[in-house]
Amino acid sequence: MAKSRVLIFEPIHQKGLDHLSKNGAEVVYAPGFSEEEICSVVDEVDAIIARAQGFIDGPVLDRAPRLKVVGRHGIGVDNINVPAATERGIFVVNTPTGPVEAVAEYVAMSMVALPRRIPQADSATRQTDWDFRNRHHGPELRGKTLGIVGFGRIGRRIAEICGPGYRMKTTYYDVYPASEDEEKRLGIERVEFDKLITESDYITLNVPLVDQTHHLIDARAMENMKPTAYLINCSRGPVVDEKALVQALRANTIAGAVIDVFEEEPVQADNPLLKLDNVLLSPHCSGHTSESAQNLSLVAADIIRILEGKRPEFPVNDPIHPRQTVT
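Above: the chain's sequence. Below: its structure in C-alpha cell form.
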C-alpha cells in the first residue's frame, strides 16, 4: 500500500514531522508559495499543511484529486478557501489552542515595551546615553482600561493576565458574549465596539480576518480613540487600515501601535511604518515560542486522523455534512 503524501510549504517543528513519519506519511516540500509552484507538486498529495504563506484555492484543489485535508499550522484560515474545500469534500483543520499562550504573553509584554520605549532604552544604553532615563517616562498600566476586540481563547487569556496581573479595568467586544459566570470570573465587562474604542487606553485586536473585520480599525475608529491610546494588532494585517494608521501615528492622533501583522507580508522595505518611532514592529511572530512551535506542528495529528478515516479534533469545516460547516 502506497504511503500517504503530505505537502508542506514552510518548515514545521520536528515533533510534527515525526508524527507524520511514525504514522506512515511521506513529506513532500513545495518549491515556493505561488499557485504555480504549489500546483507543480500537489497532484499526488493526500494532505497539505499550510502556514502563513501561499493560498489554497479552487485551482490548487482541482489539481489534487487525492487531497483529503488541508491543515492550518495556526488559527486563521484566511489563506484557505474553506467553501471551495467543502464543495470538493476536503476537510480543513487548524490548531486553535497552539499559539494562545504565546500571543497573550506577547500582547502583555508589548503593553509595557512600547510606552516605556524598551527597544530605544536598550539602544541608548549601548551608546552610553545615560540621560535617556531622564527624557522618557512611560505610563504604568495599573488603573488603565484595556479593550479586547475578539474574546476567543487568546482574548480570554489576555484578560486573565492583564486584569488581575496588571490591575487594569478590562472590557471586551465580541459578537458572541461570554457567559455571566466567565465575565464574573475574569472581572470583565462586555461593551459596544464604539464605546470600547473611545474609552480604552489600550486596544488589542484578536479577531479572524473575515469580510466583517476587514479594516475594522479605520480612520474613523482611530479618530475616536484617545490621543494617549495604544493599538495592538496580533491578528491579521488587513484588520487595520494601514494607510490610516500611518496618518494617525504621524499626526499623534493615537500614542502608538504594536504591529505584528501587515497588510502585505513579508513587509516591504518602503512600508512607512518602518520609519516611525512610535511603533513596535515584529515579523508576524507573536505566536512563536518553542512550545507553540511544537503545538502548532501537531496539526499533523488531525491530518493523520482524517487519512485514517477518523474524525478530526479541530475541524474548521465539515465536508461530510456541509450545512454544519464551521467557517
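The chain has two domains: 4-98+290-324, 100-281.
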